[in-house]
Amino acid sequence: MTFKISYYSLVLAATALLSACGEKTPEVKEGQYPTIVVQTGEKHLQTAYSATIKGRQDINIYAEVSGKITDLKVNEGDVVKKGQVLFIIDQVPYAAALRSAEANYEAAKVGVASAQLDYDSIQELYDNGVVSQYELQSSLNALNTAKATLAQAEAQKIEAANNLSYTEVKSPSDGVVGTLPYREGTLVSASMSSPLTTVSDNSQMYVYFSINENQLLSLAREYGTIDKAMKEMPDLELRLSDGSIYEHTGRVASISGVINESTGTVSLRAEFPNPDRLLHSGANGSVLLPDDYTNIILIPQEATFELQDKTFVYKVVDGVTKSTEIVVAPKNDGREYIVLEGLEPGDEIISAGAGLLRNGMRVKPEISDENSK
Length: 373
Known about the structure:
Elements: E1 5-12, E2 29-37, E3 40-61, E4 67-72, E5 79-80, E6 85-89, H1 92-127, H2 133-166, E7 168-170, E8 175-177, E9 187-188, E10 197-212, H3 213-223, H4 226-232, E11 237-240, E12 251-255, E13 265-273, E14 284-300, E15 304-307, E16 310-317, E17 320-328, E18 336-341, E19 348-350, E20 363-365, H5 369-372
Antiparallel strand pairs: 1-2, 1-20, 2-19, 3-10, 3-14, 4-6, 4-9, 5-8, 6-7, 8-10, 10-13, 11-14, 12-13, 14-18, 15-16, 16-17, 17-18
Helix pairs in contact: 1-2, 3-4
């Protein structure tokens, strides 16, 4: 928005009555003050909120079996895929345990087959009245015991197979490998409290920031509901710690339903794409929330003055200054105010030095040297 500025001389007339002692009238002082004619325009503002950057998920990787690390398959900062092997823990004892479990399972299968043959034979003899009910029941019990032994052997085989598979520590998701505090030869176990590493899924980053209760209410009123606000709010920008603006914009994905009692703020989560892995989990920045205003009245801040927490300007009406209270938007860029009430397009106001003026002062056009000749 541009302002058309004209200049006037302000005649500062003496207002005190002269005493009866015949003192001379003080000289009239003149000052040059610019004016503008109020017009409508547009304004783009941004509000910055401190933010914390997190990966979509940071997964701690722990050992599920005990043993020495025999092979480290990745380096810190490597990009890995879901299911990719990160570590290998000594597989020899677990492979041996699996072979033993498989052998026990096969033996149990044979036991079930033998018990089944015995039961079938005794059942036939019982049907012909050769053997007693007791012998038939005993053979059935032996068959059921053999089947239970087989089920137990099968469970042990599955457990041994799982333990062997756990010796290959795999990534549970796509992401980036964090620090690697344990190297080849280190003895690890499932009871360790610290992880082997962390895999951060940072293909999309979660950026957390907070707004106060009044700002939350303002959002709800502006868009109707919080759900509509999340859908219709404009894209956000992200200012990184070095002051640069991240090249990709983000969207607000969630607004917490709980206001923090100690801070009076509510947490928001924005999502930003991270195709080039420029953003890292744990970093800090600032979310820039835009506000676009159209068909609004903008005036320079230096055209205003404050009195008892109210904001005023001086209109020029019929060549005389008239103080006028205005209501301005709480957000501003430090140079201009958005006027919500008190002015209309076409109003002429003093655009600078308002704090030096008084109500009811007469102004007149500045006469140039050429016109005075």
